Amino acid sequence: xxxxxxxxxxxxxxxxxxxxxxxxxxxxxxxxxxxxxxxxxxxxxxxxxxxxxxxxxxxxxxxxxxxxxxxxxxxxxxxxxxxxxxxxxxxxxxxxxxxxxxxxxxxxxxxxxxxxxxxxxxxxxxxxxxxxxxxxxxxxxxxxxxxxxxxxxxxxxxxxxxxxxxxxxxxxxxxxxxx
Length: 179
Fold this sequence. Notes:
The protein is α+β, with helices and mostly antiparallel strands. It has four helices and seven strands.
């Protein structure tokens, strides 16, 4: 399985990694440490199978002139009956266009009509914790909602990751966005 992710600037990435670390230290969630190579991100698309070379070529074409996108997180949320907690970015014109343009340009690669990342199904988010009991979800929500007021950063790269059965998710190709 593959995911196309939007990755953050170093400051934003470090902030989220610190939250992950604190949640682990407080025995609330070890989500971030369950998959080797996990980095904070917003998933833009998912694929079951890919012709990698064609996909890489399309990434080169699509993201050649893509500018860095400001992102801000002013709320946290949870998917119903999931035990997941996430930072919810404000859906700006830039974030919306990044997602919708990706799906237009990569339509030929779409192989999952039930993907949660398709236009009209996508809920942009950066996962903080997952598979939590109701008690731990409440604890994580309380901790994260009191930790800071807002997080402002940038999406500086798009990357294709491969999620493996060995609990790894390495970046196999990426494109830096233009500053």
